[in-house]
Amino acid sequence: MDFSIPVKVGSAFCAVLLLLFSLSCLDTSAQTGRVDPEQVMRHVEKIVSYGPHPPGSETQKEVGRYITEWLHSLGLEVHTHSFHPVTPVGRREMTNIWGVVKGKEDSVIILASHYDSKYFEEFSFVGANDSGSSSGLLLELARILKQENPTDYSLWFVFFDGEEAFFDWTSADSLYGSREFVRMLKGRGQLSQISALILLDMVGEKDLVLRQDVNSTYWLNQIIWDQGEEMGHGDIFQSRGNTGAQDDHVPFAQEGIPVVDLIDLDYAHWHKKEDTLDKLSPDNLRIVGDVVLASLPEIAKRLKENP
Fold first, then answer.
1. What total number of domains does the chain contain?
2. Which residue, 123, 138, 168, is CA-closest to 275?
3. pLDDT-derived band of residue 33, with 50, 70 and 90 as boundaries?
4. Which one is predicted more confidently, 2 or 134?
């Protein structure tokens, strides 16, 4: 989305126009309570328009600014945390971003995505599905949940930098942002506030099939996949088979936090130059978002019953 307005228009008038535009978006979310797939795609198109955006690049900073500006426009409390890990290509500046919707309780449910694209020297990789789809959907979920939080929990919308490995995936060359986020929470004495994490990653392809991840918490898998089946989307939220993802949920799981990862690792264009906008399905993005929204009350209920 482009918020640019011709410079000849007065600044006060510009502010009014921007406010009215933002309110129109918020009214839509309040009326429907559902994901607007066209809005998700506009976010993905904007992210992809910056080109390859691996961690530490100028284009990644541009993507980060777009995310923070959108979260600010919704009226969220927005935080950033920059860090400088050593990578196989030297030290790189990375920045985690998160927006906060405060609930009746300080306990937090995190909804998350990574927002970097994988580093390739051989070709231009824009990552429309990995991770444009999940980042765009998370921005849309923030829009909806800012208007109506169906839980008593505070909601954090977290965008991790540096999920991708620069070269070969190892415990050191991967998950830079989520590992740093957990370290930050520990250092601030906030880790105990995190009740659960819902991670989105590669959720937009046309042939989307989501299988339960073996590194996720059993009951979280069950709530979301049962909800998907109940809503008539068993072809996407498939009950047969499973997958094993090493993803941004792992550092949280290692601390005993309930986690779930929604990811399709069978994506044919994973880490290929063909991971472009034309491979995405707006309808599938809507379905995933609507299932997550519908699952939140049951997730909150389970957390209260078994804190």
1. 1
2. 123
3. low
4. 134
Closest by Cα among 277, 268, 274, 265 to 241:
265
Residue 57 structural domain: 33-305
Instruction: With CA atoms as reference, report the closest residue to 208 among 257, 160, 146, 265.
Output: 265
Residues 6+ apart with CB under 8 A from 167: 88, 173
Cα angle, residue 197 at apex, residues 193 and 200 outer, rounded to 5°: 150
- CATH number of the domain that residue 55 is part of: 3.40.630.10
Q: Which of 223, 215, 198 is nearest to 111 (CA)?
A: 198
pTM for the structure as a whole: 0.90
Dig out the tokens for 261 from the structure.
């990862």
Peptide bond into 154 cis (omega under 30): no
CA distance 124 to 145: 34
Write the DSSP symbol of residue 123: S
Tens of pLDDT along 276-303? 999 999 999 999 999 999 999 999 999 9
Give Cβ neighbours of residue 41 (< 8 Å, ≥ 6 apart). 136, 277, 280, 282, 285
Residue 1 is assigned to a structural domain of this protein: no
17 domain residue, yes or no: no
Determine, yes or no, domain membership for 264: yes
Residue 144 sits at the vertex; the CA angle it makes with 138 and 150, to the nearest 5 degrees, is 105
- 122-125: which pairs have CB atoms within 8 A and are 24 or more residues apart? 123/273, 124/51, 124/52, 124/273, 125/52, 125/271, 125/272, 125/273, 125/275
Predicted confidence at residue 306, as pLDDT, reads 87
Q: Which of 136, 129, 130 has its CA nearest to residue 118?
A: 130
